Amino acid sequence: MKTNSAQCGGLPAPAELERIAQSLKLLAHPQRLRIVGRLERGGAAPVYAIMADLALPQGALSQHLNHMKRAGLVQAERRGKEVWYRIADRRAVQVLHCVCGRGGKK
Amino acid sequence: MKTNSAQCGGLPAPAELERIAQSLKLLAHPQRLRIVGRLERGGAAPVYAIMADLALPQGALSQHLNHMKRAGLVQAERRGKEVWYRIADRRAVQVLHCVCGRGGKK
DNA sequence: TCAAAATATCATGATATCATGATATGTCAA
DNA sequence: TTGACATATCATGATATCATGATATTTTGA
Q1: Cα(A53)–Cα(B38) distance, rounded to whole angstroms?
Q2: Which of A97, B22, B61, B76 could in theory staple to B56 by disulfide, Cβ–Cβ 3.0 to 4.6 A?
Q3: B4-48 confidence digits (pLDDT tens)
Q4: pLDDT tens digits, B53-100
Q5: Sign of the C-alpha dihedral, residues A39, A100, B33, A105?
Q6: pLDDT band at residue A71 under the 50/70/90 scheme
Q7: What backbone phi and psi angles, to 5 degrees, belong to B16?
């Protein structure tokens, strides 16, 4: 039995809650939401494709992806000169959906 | 027909996306997540009750609530000396659930 | 080995967020 | 009208995030 249920009222323990908030913070950014949308809809993609689709500056995009990778939201795989990114944590997509309309039960 | 579908790939228009990201940013904070959890589980409550349950300093709690109110996540109603808060946007709860475990379809 | 393509990292200044303690406001009862 | 209770607001310094432009790294083909 988790003894922290009383203190946290059914929510995860403080340390975990901190991690969750951190991931959520990464999603709380317009461009990063668009990146998640792009990766969901088009599947995995190399950076230059995302860059073209979303019209983001290369350095900025790379940093966004890096942050999301560190948090485990996306996953990277090198293929030759390219690096392909994909969604690694479904919760990213779920949050996007329930916050952008479809996905809410009302 | 929304002509921004092409540019935004099914996501809301930039201005709206900005607002959504802003709301998400408010949820991306451990104490505010706990506040949402408290209001969900216990229903509406006066500030002093939330303060006691979550052991948050009065000023800080008041500011958290104020920010969330401005964003439309919660709603306030004065009853005598007290001000009762309640969830105003179900998406807050949905995000909490899908990010904290229960609520995701896997 | 060199050049170019694709991506990553760094440095920096601007802005936003945070926690804290102090003070102000509003409401009710005496 | 005064006092106390409940809540809100303010001021401030510390820290985090952001966008930008410059530079570095990795990989492949010539």
Answers
A1: 41
A2: B61
A3: 444 456 899 999 999 999 999 999 999 999 999 999 999 999 999
A4: 999 999 999 999 999 999 999 999 999 999 999 999 999 999 999 998
A5: negative
A6: very high
A7: -65, -40
Asked if A52 has any chain B CB less than 8 Å from its own CB, the reply is: no
Architecture (CATH level 2) of domain A29-106: Orthogonal Bundle (1.10)
Q: Which two tokens stand for residue B2?
A: 């929304």
Facing B90 at nearest CB: one of A94, A101, A106: A106
| Per-domain residue ranges of chain A | 29-106
Domain B30-106, what fold?
Answer: Arc Repressor Mutant, subunit A (1.10.10)
